[in-house]
Write a structure and sequence with these properties.
CATH superfamily of the largest domain in chain A: Dipeptide-binding Protein, Domain 3
CATH class of chain B: Mainly Alpha
Radius of gyration of chain A: 27 Å
Helix content of chain B: 55-70%
CATH class of the largest domain in chain A: Alpha Beta
Number of helices of chain A: 19
Chains: A alpha+beta (579), B mainly alpha (312), C mainly alpha (330)
CATH superfamily of chain B: MetI-like
Distance between the termini of chain B: 23 Å
Oligomer: heterotrimer
Strand order of the largest sheet of chain A: 10-11-12-1-13-23-14
Shape of chain A: globular
Largest sheet of chain A: 7 strands, mixed
CATH topology of the largest domain in chain A: Dipeptide-binding Protein, domain 3
Shape of chain B: elongated
Radius of gyration of chain B: 22 Å
Helix content of chain A: 25-40%
CATH topology of chain B: MetI-like fold
Structural class of chain B: mainly alpha
Largest sheet of chain B: none
Order of helices and strands of chain B: HHHHHHHHHHHH
Number of domains of chain B: 1
Distance between the termini of chain A: 80 Å
Number of strands of chain A: 25
Number of helices of chain B: 12
Strand content of chain B: under 5%
Number of domains of chain A: 3
Largest interface: A-C, 83 and 86 residues
Chain lengths: 579, 312, 330
């Protein structure tokens, strides 16, 4: 039987011609007109990237990390700002803030500030925003439960606390709580919506507004400069030069590097391996420091042991482990000197003034594999014939150190760490589970060792010790104390620190010295290196990026929490290239 | 020409031409058949070239590591240098020797191909034979099973598996590939079996009281042996390719090294952008060459076994 | 005929139910809790974190027993509701898929159809001309053996990064307004080209080889020889051969769909092309149950439908299938 089916060849050819015709037409129309019909002129647009992974969720500033990049800082502003390099608070939407009594904080709201829709920013607005803390889905809810009342009158807002206020936490929040226009949230002021609803058109006091026409959740968010930004009128900031700021959704490290090198992205905050090689290569790339470590330190990478498991529950084991790791090699080989080794307390360089140098000299640790072996032997561990130690009770040591799969720099780091540990007789193997499995293991306490860097740069070392010692320990730890270390005295000290006023330097130092000594003596977690504020900027379209060599010592990052530090200064000080 | 002689081709890459099994009559004495096959085999250019390429890579995989001067994952060398006297294929950004990574990776890729492809072949044969021989309701059920496995996004299943197994090795990868790439082989074997089942010698065997398994492995399979060989080669090549792709997206073994993992690491570290082409390109070329050569070999073998395909 | 179709339909329905169940189950067996990821992003005190966690668990009905969740899933599915995304709460999953589908389809359909058509043509030509056979064929094999992602990245580096002929990422030029202007459409096409090319190149090889083998086989068959003996012109013989050779290729098309979809997803990730592939990557990283389910459901239904269509087409194209349906099994 012969098939009578005929290949539809004549119409196939016609179809092919038609297809090619359409494609050619589109290309022909596209290519020449691309050159001169861009809606956002290149020399007026600042392209940023490196913060937004995955689709953009929306514009709810209350859900930290789940709103568009730049929302807080460009659109919604805060009462104060903080400069970590100078350790000063900058009065922003609040002109003044002070403790008028031990438990009363009075804010003087700046006059003449207007929301982007033209209406006035008032003390009543501030009260409304602060009162949101009553809902338990708001991040600062815990702090709010210690507040008795918030009163607004004239342009003053008075916050009265119940008992001794948590000074450090309050000081940390006044430059983090975003101010939104209350009318935008009409009908949505409840716990559920505050955690999940996103306003279509966020209204803030900042220098930019959302350009709704350009918003594409899969690709980009566009901000457009507004007129009459109060900070310019008040002489606090120059008028920002970029008319548009476009933040692009992240693709991959590979593509990000390509975009920066070809000048399609101006400021990129991805971790791009090999950038150190490119700085000197004439590509016009700039980092904060022109020489190693190139990047400012953003947080500390800790080796977190699970102190509920043996032998990690033995302080001698932790000390030996700390002495066996060659962090210098990780810094130079893995990171190409783009990071710096941490000191024994783990505190960031911006907190150098709080570090008790004598305590570090006395209790600090350093890389010394022989000393590591000695510590173990003295503590009763026995070196076996295979070169590996066994525990004093005879059980073998077989540990895994885990980082999320795909975090290449950490993956390389734990390969080096496990090699170092084995050289000192401690049997540790690297493990790269999928991110969610890793996170679950970390949160539920089923891991052996992980690397974690959740505690970020802030205005007080209190946040670091909160990260280290918070009690009680729940079945599921979501943010603090992953090592599950129970030290009631240390936690009491941390809470005492919280109740110490920020300007009581001597008081703070006394407690901090105690905490630093404790953390070095007990090593609940081991500080390794400082992860950087990854930031590389291209100079083809915009220049005058911040640098350690100029007076513009700002932090060039669009990450959450950074714009209200000195990130916004970066935006207001860039100049078009070629001027 | 029977209807059921037409086979459904496998998913990417290509359709194996159906060797009409009837072309090799079962009555031919074995010796003569082997000599005839060998004669044509040596004169078939595709087979020779394809086989040579695969052989060369296989030899590199077996002997190569003994020439490595450095461990594949050791951070010994100067970072990011190109091919040189001491480092034949250059080094990675972290100073690891790419040559030794390459030859170790070749080994891993061949192993996965062998075990993954072999497992898929076994499963495919099992299901294909039984479905083809028994027919009826058994066939319906097995066909539905085949369809389901075909339709499930294997990507998704692998992610779950990957998440569960915190340490993944070559073995688990081979098992996974083996259990997900058999459907097209099962279908192809099934239709071949259909055509054979209706033939006289099978009826004779059934009359003489042989059991199902005895008939399948004693009568049907030997008559399809060339086809089975072709299928296995395709499965082998497919397994190597699939393993490389899985490694590339980060779902591969968590320790050791393979060609796909090399590609993955080089992309993670933006090797091409930074000019380290020697890290990214060799593994991809190796995969393309090996799998491509396997497919060429396959077509050559097809021509050897099926005189109808021989052209001049 | 009717029996054939009804049997096929039942088989497909059963396959659908089983496949969908597996699809629903898969994300839930992944270790980790999606709400945890959401909550961990916000630094808060343990008590506040607990409150937020329980809020989200209720919102996603994740606190109900498993069998209840399964039934809810079917109930919602039959109403066309795929639930709400977890990581992009409260955006419905259908909205997210709707945004991404045009991009993925624009890659898949042209790539599959064009590579099928061009590959078959080239294969048929190669079957006739020895010269073409010896050059096209090896190239075809190597192309088909190339990993999608590797080729994609190579193309991106060569053509986009180094030569700057094409853009390297995204669906359109980020400096453009999204409007139906020629500029925008041109930009869409420009950005579409490289991902499409990498898919097309790899798929093309396979079709060419398959077709070439089929044609040669057909040309050596009895009826072809018979026609030649009768003195029929070569063109006529080849036309019949081509028609017959296309049959297994059609089934091959259905089988290949799964692989090409996988290739498209992976290619999108390379080029940051905002289709389903990119979306599913984020969904998996964030353990977004509902989004993962929804996307894979889409893919499953798509492949099943395509298979069904191909089966129907096959019946009309090849009458022998009807014959074979009438006597089955030994």
């Amino acid at each position: 039987m012969i098939s009578t089916a005929k290949a539809a060849r004549p119409s196939g050819r016609a179809r092919r011609v038609a297809l090619m015709g359409v494609a050619a037409l589109a290309l022909a129309a596209g290519v020449p007109s691309l050159a001169n019909a861009a809606s956002y002129p290149r020399n007026e647009t600042l392209y940023t990237g490196g913060t937004q992974w995955g689709n953009i969720a929306g514009f709810n500033p209350m859900v930290g990390g789940a709103h568009a990049t730049g929302l807080i800082g460009l659109v919604n502003e805060t009462l104060f700002r903080y400069d970590p390099l100078k350790d000063t608070y900058l009065p922003w939407l609040a002109e003044k803030g002070e403790w008028t009594a031990d438990n009363v904080y009075t804010l003087t709201i700046r006059k003449g500030v207007k929301w982007s829709d033209g209406s006035a920013f008032t003390a009543a607005d501030v009260k409304w925003n602060l009162d949101l803390g009553q809902y338990d889905t708001i991040p600062f809810h815990n702090l709010y439960t210690g507040i008795k009342s918030v009163e607004a009158s004239g342009n003053t807002v008075t916050v009265t606390f119940d008992g001794t206020p948590k000074y450090q936490e309050w000081q940390n929040q006044i430059w983090n709580i975003p101010m939104s226009k209350p009318s935008v949230w009409k009908g949505h002021e409840n716990a559920k919506d505050l955690a999940s609803w996103s306003p279509d058109n966020p209204i803030g006091t900042g220098p930019y507004v959302l350009d709704k026409a350009g918003y594409d959740p899969t690709t980009r968010v566009v901000y457009k400069k507004r007129d009459n930004w109060w900070a310019v009128d008040a002489g606090l900031q120059p008028s920002p030069a970029p008319k548009y700021i476009i933040d692009l959704v992240n693709s991959s490290n590979n593509t990000a590097l390509g975009l920066v090198l070809t000048g399609q992205e101006d400021l990129n905050n991805n971790y791009l391996p090999g950038v150190s090689k490119l700085i000197a290569g004439g590509y016009g790339l700039q980092t904060y420091y022109p020489q190693p470590p190139y990047m400012l330190a953003a947080n500390t990478a800790w080796l977190v042991p699970n102190t509920t498991k043996a032998p990690m529950n033995d302080v001698n084991f932790r000390k030996a482990l700390a002495a066996s790791i060659n962090v210098d090699q990780i810094v130079s080989v893995d990171y190409g000197d783009m990071v710096a080794k941490a000191n024994s307390t783990g505190l960031l360089p911006i907190w150098d003034k709080w570090v008790d140098k004598d305590a570090v000299a006395k209790y600090g640790f350093k890389y010394d594999p022989a000393a590591a072996k000695k510590i173990l032997t003295d503590a009763g561990y026995k070196l076996g014939a295979d070169g590996m130690f066994t525990q004093p009770d005879g059980s073998p040591i077989n540990l895994k150190v885990a980082v999320p799969n795909g975090w290449s720099d950490w993956m390389q780091a734990i390969q080096m760490i496990s090699a170092d540990a084995k050289a000192a007789g401690i049997n540790i193997t690297p493990d790269y589970p999928d991110y969610n499995a890793w996170q679950q293991a970390r949160n539920s306490g089923t891991f052996d060792l992980v690397i974690d860097n959740s505690a970020q740069m802030s205005d007080t070392p209190f946040t670091y010790y909160q990260y280290m010692y918070t009690l009680p320990i729940l079945q599921n730890q979501t943010n603090f104390n992953f090592q599950r270390f129970e030290d009631k005295d240390a936690w009491d000290l941390v809470q005492k620190l919280d109740s110490t006023k920020k300007d009581d330097t001597a008081g703070m130092q006394a407690i901090l010295t105690q905490l630093e000594t404790k953390s070095m003596q007990d090593l609940p977690e081991i500080p390794l290196w400082y992860n950087g504020v990854w930031s590389q900027a291209g100079t083809t379209t915009w220049t005058n990026w911040p640098s350690s060599t100029t007076a513009d010592n700002y932090i060039p990052a669009m990450w959450n929490g950074y714009l209200q530090m000195t990130g916004i200064d970066v935006i207001t000080h860039v100049k078009p290239a070629g001027k | 020409m029977t209807v059921s002689g037409k086979d459904e081709p496998p998913p990417r890459p290509l359709a194996p031409a159906t060797p009409a099994v009837a072309a090799l009559p079962a009555a031919v004495a074995p010796v003569r058949r082997r000599n005839e096959a060998l004669y044509y085999a040596l004169r078939n250019r595709k087979l020779v070239i394809g086989f040579t390429i695969v052989l060369v890579f296989l030899l590199i995989a077996i002997i190569g590591p003994s020439f490595s001067r450095h461990e594949p994952l050791a951070y010994d060398g100067p970072p990011g240098i190109g091919p040189s006297a001491d480092y034949w294929l250059g080094t990675t950004m972290f100073g690891q020797d790419i040559y030794s990574q390459f030859v170790s990776g070749l080994r891993a890729s061949f192993l996965v191909g062998l075990f993954g492809g072999g497992l898929a072949a076994i499963v495919g044969m099992f299901i294909g034979f039984i479905a083809g021989y028994r027919g009826g309701i058994v066939d319906e059920i097995l066909s539905m099973l085949t369809n389901i496995v075909l339709v499930i996004p294997t990507f998704a299943v692998l992610l779950v598996v990957a998440a569960y197994l915190s340490v993944r090795g070559i073995g688990s990868e081979a098992v996974f590939i083996g259990f997900t790439s058999w459907p097209w082989a099962a279908r192809a074997i099934r239709s071949q079996t259909f055509s054979l089942t209706s033939r006289d010698f099978v009826d004779m065997a059934r009359l003489s009281g042989r059991s199902t398994l005895q008939i399948i492995f004693g009568e049907i399979a030997p008559n399809m042996s060339s086809y089975l060989l072709l299928t296995f080669i395709l499965l082998f090549g497919g397994a190597v390719l699939t393993a490389a792709t899985l490694d590339f997206i980060g779902l591969g073994p968590t320790n050791g090294i393979s060609l796909g993992l090399m590609m993955n690491y080089s992309v993670m570290n933006a090797a091409l952008q930074l000019g380290m082409w020697w890290w990214f390109i060799p593994p991809g070329i190796a995969i393309a060459a090996i799998v491509g050569a396997l497919y060429v070999m396959n077509v050559g073998l097809d021509e050897v076994f099926n005189p109808k395909l021989r052209e001049a | 005929m009717l029996r054939y179709f009804s049997r096929k339909l039942i088989t497909y329905l059963l396959t659908f139910v089983v496949a969908v169940t597996i699809d629903w189950a898969i994300p839930r067996f992944m270790p980790g809790n999606p709400v945890d990821s959401l909550v961990s992003r916000i630094a808060m005190q343990p008590e506040a974190a607990q409150a937020l966690t329980s809020f989200y668990m209720k919102a996603f009905a994740l606190d109900q027993p498993i069998w209840q969740q399964y039934l809810n899933f079917w109930g919602a599915l039959l109403q066309g509701d795929l639930g709400r995304s977890i990581m992009l709460f409260p955006t419905p999953v259908t909205v997210l898929i709707g945004r991404a589908i045009p991009y993925t389809l624009s890659l898949l359909l042209p790539a599959i159809l064009l590579s099928y058509w061009a590959g078959n043509r080239t294969g048929a030509l190669a079957a006739r001309r020895k010269l073409l056979d010896n050059t096209v064929l090896p190239i075809g094999y190597v192309l088909t053996a190339t990993p999608y992602m590797w080729l994609g990245i190579l193309l991106a580096w060569l053509l986009a990064s180094t030569l700057r002929w094409f853009p390297m990422a995204f669906g359109y030029d980020p400096s453009l307004q999204m409007e139906w202007s020629w500029t925008f459409i041109g930009s869409l096409a420009f950005h579409w080209f490289l991902p499409f090319a990498s898919l097309f190149i790899v798929a093309f090889g396979g079709w060419a080889i398959g077709m070439r083998n089929m044609i040669i086989y057909e040309l050596e068959s009895d009826y072809a020889h018979y026609l030649e003996a009768l003195g029929a012109p070569t063109r006529l013989v080849r036309r019949y051969a081509y028609g017959n050779a296309r049959l297994p290729q059609i089934t091959g098309l259905a089988l290949q769909l799964g692989a090409v979809v996988g290739g498209a997803l992976v290619t999108e990730i390379v080029f940051s092309y905002p289709g389903l592939g990119w979306l599913v990557l984020g969904a998996i990283q964030n353990l977004d149950y509902f989004l993962i389910q929804g996307i894979f459901l889409f893919i499953i239904v798509g492949i099943l439908l395509a298979n069904l269509v191909v089966d129907i087409v096959y019946v009309f194209v090849d009458p022998r299938t009807r014959l074979s349906m009438q006597g089955s099994g030994a």
